[in-house]
Amino acid sequence: MNDRLLNAESRVVVIQLCPEDLALAQRLHFWQHVRSRGGIIRLSILCVVATALFAGLLWLAGSGSDAVVPVLAFALATPFAILGFPFLITHVLGGVAARRTFRQQKTLHKPATLAWTEQGVVLQSDYGDARVPWADFRKARQDERMILLYESDRLYRVIPKRCLSAVQLADLQSCLVAAPPG
């Protein structure tokens, strides 16, 4: 077997998703969104608007200058509350939602083959093939267990790192640099 064929074969992996993969992908997506510039801006605007509404309600209730401490406490607690609900939904209830989604979406039950080159990825399954150049991905995100290849802000391809050998992971990560930073 020549080196070119060996290299091509090392860039092919079969991915069989499980409900846990979906939950982990959802968590990674949540955290990448929260840490993004747009996520921080939306969180900040929501906190300012919520605090202003709270202060306005206290002012209408006639609290006047007595409302300074409650408004400051509300302003400090608002970011935790605003992040807390999605965090709980993603981390506590995420497994339930992932299992339900996996049960409902039959396309997730079949294995898919992932192949990659310096130009892009090829995904093949019983449901069809997709050839996507790296430049067509909006961004790529990863943590210690998962890689997400984003085709839009909310649509991503899930690649569990458990399906890759250490050599394959390093090779795929070297190709990921061609994906836009997002």
UniProtKB/TrEMBL annotation:
One Pfam match: YcxB
Membrane-spanning intervals of the chain: 40-61, 67-96
InterPro entries from the UniProt entry: YcxB-like_C
Keywords per UniProt: Membrane, Transmembrane, Transmembrane helix
Residue intervals of the YcxB-like C-terminal domain: 116-174
Highest taxon above the source species: Bacteria
UniProt key word Membrane: yes
The name this protein goes by in its record: YcxB-like protein
Organism encoding this protein: Phytopseudomonas punonensis
